[in-house]
Design a protein that fits this description.
TIM Barrel; 11 helices
């Protein structure tokens, strides 16, 4: 059952990078902070208590980030992840000022920094971003590295090693796979507040690359397993044009997953539309695997098999399949 637990705002679709794996449509719209704040107010009484930011590059809208963060604090909301490429700034002075403003606005969530084989990071600027975050927030455990892992499993191992060294840490590795950057203060805690503030820990979050509906991802030997979009899937994702998707991933620009638009729609309207949406119900209630079996039983054929449920969802939405419902 779709029950949103977080609002993710994408204040802009603009970005200073052009990564090959990114499918965000570069629309010119810019989400108004006032509309976002009113939407949070409509959602708060219904149990949504977390807000995060994505894009595009959200730091290209520092005004939005600060205004919405201040409002979230006033609504007693928690912060999720603020996604960023970490190299959006023009100067150290701009970086310092922007981060200081956001800190004063009350943001205390995680910074999700994209570092993977799809990006071509400027290690100097990336290092400066981490160091400035640590300085402004007075702690060294407020960042994560988000890596999109390509089908061949390649990881930016060399970049991670250099970054760890520049931050005064080292990679923690398990079964040959790096999973954190830490320093001696983290590995040998002294038990006091000063030691805790100096403890460096940057965890890695790996996100498998999902093909788009236009790519050939039908080469798997077996079908995907259902997870009913557990974890980060239960969100209202608000695009820069105000459209709201019941999806946290790259398929969230599909019309089948759009359930309304702010400022016209609040929580109640969106919840009603989500309950009536065949695609949303397929993802969160019936299960995409069940829908696939029902479609095949009715004569639908697919080009092959895929182990990627997000790809399959994207494919269904873009090819306008008549989605059946499971008998109850």
């Amino acid at each position: 059952m779709f029950k949103p637990e977080e609002i993710i705002f994408a204040p802009t679709a603009e970005c200073n990078l052009a990564c090959p794996h990114c499918r965000v449509t570069r629309i010119p719209d810019r989400l108004a902070a006032g509309d976002a704040i009113d939407f949070m107010k409509s959602c708060r009484p219904h149990g949504i208590e977390r807000v995060g930011f994505s894009g595009g590059e959200p730091y290209l809208r520092p005004d939005f980030l600060c205004d919405v963060s201040r409002a979230a604090v006033g609504l007693d909301m928690l912060f999720g992840r603020l996604m960023t490429n970490g190299v959006w700034f023009d100067s150290p002075e701009q970086l310092q000022q922007t981060l200081a403003d956001l800190h004063r606005a009350g943001f205390d969530g995680k910074f999700g920094v994209s570092v993977d084989s799809y990006h071509d990071p400027n290690l100097r600027d990336l290092t400066l971003f981490f160091q400035t975050v640590f300085s402004v927030w007075g702690r060294r455990d407020c960042c994560e590295i988000i890596s999109a892992i390509p089908p061949d499993g390649a990881e930016p191992r060399e970049i991670l090693e250099v970054l760890a060294e520049r931050l005064g840490g080292r990679l923690l590795i398990e079964d040959g796979v790096p999973y954190s950057i830490v320093n001696p203060a983290f590995l040998n805690p002294g038990g006091n507040a000063a030691d805790e503030a100096e403890a460096l820990v940057i965890d890695f979050v790996r996100v498998p690359y999902s093909a788009s509906a236009d790519e050939n991802a039908w080469t798997s030997e077996s079908w995907f397993e259902d997870d009913f979009c557990r974890g980060p899937g239960n969100v209202f994702y608000v695009h820069p044009d105000g459209s709201v998707a019941a999806c946290c991933g790259f398929a969230n620009e599909n019309g089948g997953l759009i359930i309304g638009r702010i400022p016209a729609d609040g929580y109640r309207q969106l919840a009603r539309r989500a309950a009536a949406s065949p695609v949303v119900q397929a993802c969160f209630e019936d299960g995409l695997a069940t829908i696939r079996e029902l479609l095949e039983a009715k004569g639908s054929e697919f080009p092959g098999k895929t182990a990627d449920r997000c790809f399959f969802c994207d494919y269904l939405a873009k090819h306008d399949f008549p989605i059946p419902r499971r008998n109850r």
